[in-house]
From TrEMBL, chain A:
UniProt topology in membrane: Multi-pass membrane protein
Single Gene Ontology BP annotation: cytochrome complex assembly
Transmembrane segments: 34-53, 73-94, 106-125, 137-156, 168-190, 210-234
InterPro entries membership: Cyt_c_assembly (IPR002541), Cyt_c_biogenesis_CcmC (IPR003557), Cyt_c_biogenesis_CcsA/CcmC (IPR045062)
Source species of the chain: Gluconacetobacter johannae
Gene giving rise to this polypeptide: ccmC
GO annotations of cellular component type: plasma membrane
MF (Gene Ontology): heme binding; heme transmembrane transporter activity
Designated name of the protein: Heme exporter protein C
Pfam families reported for this sequence: Cytochrom_C_asm
The keyword Mitochondrion appears for this protein: no
Keyword Cell membrane on entry: yes
Purpose of the protein: Required for the export of heme to the periplasm for the biogenesis of c-type cytochromes.
From TrEMBL, chain B:
Ranges annotated as spanning the membrane: 6-29
Source organism phylogeny: Bacteria, Pseudomonadati, Pseudomonadota, Alphaproteobacteria, Acetobacterales
Key words, A-Z: Membrane, Transmembrane, Transmembrane helix
Keyword Transmembrane tagged: yes
Name of the protein described by the UniProt record: Heme exporter protein D
Amino acid sequence: MNATHSLVARTGAVFHRYANPGRFLRLGARLQPWLTWPALALSIAGIVWGLFFSPADWQQGDSVRIMYVHVPAAWLASSGYAGLAVCSLLSLVWRHPLADLAAVEIGPVGAAITAVCLATGSLWGKPMWGTWWVWDARLTSVLVLFFLYLGHIALIRAFDEPQRGYRAAAILGLAGAVDLPIIKFSVQWWNTLHQPDSITLTGAPTMSTAMLWPLLVCTLGFTLGFAAIVVARLRAAVMESRIRAALSARRGRGRAAPDSAHDSDVPGGAVA
Amino acid sequence: MSMTHLPYIAAAYGLTIGLAVLLGATAALRLRRARARLAAIDRPARAGRGENR
């Protein structure tokens, strides 16, 4: 029991070491160009490679090129939600000061990328399956993921007191993580119209390397792009929080001592 | 060069690139605005601390 407590406390201490907003802003500023420029370069290279230089599929024709945007979007939809669930855990267990803000910023980006996954899947499904949509397990579980993102965004804004919104959204974020294995294994557990995974961690890929490489480049580029956007949004959110804290401190001092209102004003380190 | 299913491919790539540009641009603008605003608030504070010394 004591060992468990000490492990939780030690893990919390490690996370809190990187929770200081000032430290995060410095780290984020250093990290931002290393995420943004490789993301742009790899995404452009992957898209051009996939669109113009990779082979067409012998059965699907050129529609297989939709894979180079659909698969990275699907990967990011799930991994973005996994990130949101980790933030929820950090918020609920360790009261990590940046975890709630990170979850707030991941939500809309994750919802947008899940919408892209669903839309590009439909655009791929129509010429291949003859329909925009079927209620099969894979498609439905990804649609549920999209609603989980929307629910998370709505729940944060549903309360007058932000902390209550963060807490409710963190519970949803954590509970919703149960959808991730359902998405992953849906093509094995049920008989679906969606094809099984072509790339797995344990087996060799079932696609040609001429298609695999541009797909990997696109996936890496999109992943870095997702991270770059989330880091930029999180940096902005921390700065906005500091602005609010500074303005509220200024207003407080203005009321307490009107004559010395302009004397000093140090933006606090408060985050949300 | 002609592609089969071109409208579907164009729509998928257009949607993805459009949304990525939109998300990236709004994040960059928001960050720039926040940085400028924080600097504007910070400037008189630092000047104030300098005067008090």
